Amino acid sequence: MPQQTKQRILHAAIRLFNEKGLANVRLQQIADDSGISVGNLAYHFPNKDAIVGAVYERMDEAFSAILSEYLAVPGLQDLDRLLARLYYFFAGHRFYLIDLIEVRRSFPAIEPHWQAHFRKLEAQLRMRLDFYQQKGLLQPALDAEALDSLAQTLWMRAVLFLHRAAALHEPDHFPRFRRQVWQPLLPWLTPQGRDAYQRDILPVMDEDLGAGTP
To answer: Strand, helix or coil at 206?
Structure first.
């Protein structure tokens, strides 16, 4: 039961952080949303900083799980699966990028973990491009510098899509995210790569998979 209560508190905190912003949420609101008293909440988490730390620990584990499945499925489907998991991770934790400056200022110990995660994500995207080129799915004309630039573009589109959509009041649903991240890669696919894209990716391009993260 105590563990269930802690999880309920963390779920409530994430919902409120997403809705109101991390700096604007008070303990009383988290307690109310959790259906418990502030005293009961304090038994599990003595203050808001402890809740934020636990939320980020949970996020850290979830993102680590995403990165651990590098090339878990064959071909272009692996990238598409990664995109789904990234989208639903960030959709479930919208406050992170929106409140990034506040997080860095108030919780500096958190930042190095996410810098490491983001560097690893970009490195994995770059290695995927190498792999696709070796398999004949990407054009051999792409040299190392061009592959670096393409990996950075994919990273920015995957990580910053929701942040940009919120800033510009644009639609932020998963099918639109999927199309926008794939778009810079399409001109560089070989005929074999285009066949794989049309066979494995395009038929489900506009589906909302509803895939969360653990």
So the answer is: coil
E strands of the chain, at which residues? none
Phi, psi of 207 (to 5 degrees): -85, 145
Task: Please report, for residues 84, 185, 190, the alpha-carbon distance to residue 132 in angstroms, rounded to integers and kept in the order given.
Answer: 19, 11, 10
- pLDDT more than 90, % of the chain: 68
What are the residues facing 189 on neighbouring strands?
138
Q: Report if pTM > 0.90.
A: no
Alpha carbon distances (Å) from 97 to 12, 42, 43, 71: 19, 27, 30, 26
C-alpha to C-alpha distance for 205 and 181, rounded to whole angstroms: 11
H helix or E strand, kind and range, residue 1: none
Q: What is the pLDDT of residues 86-118, one digit of tens each?
A: 999 999 998 887 777 777 777 787 888 888 999
* 9 close to 32: Cβ distance less than 8 angstroms: no
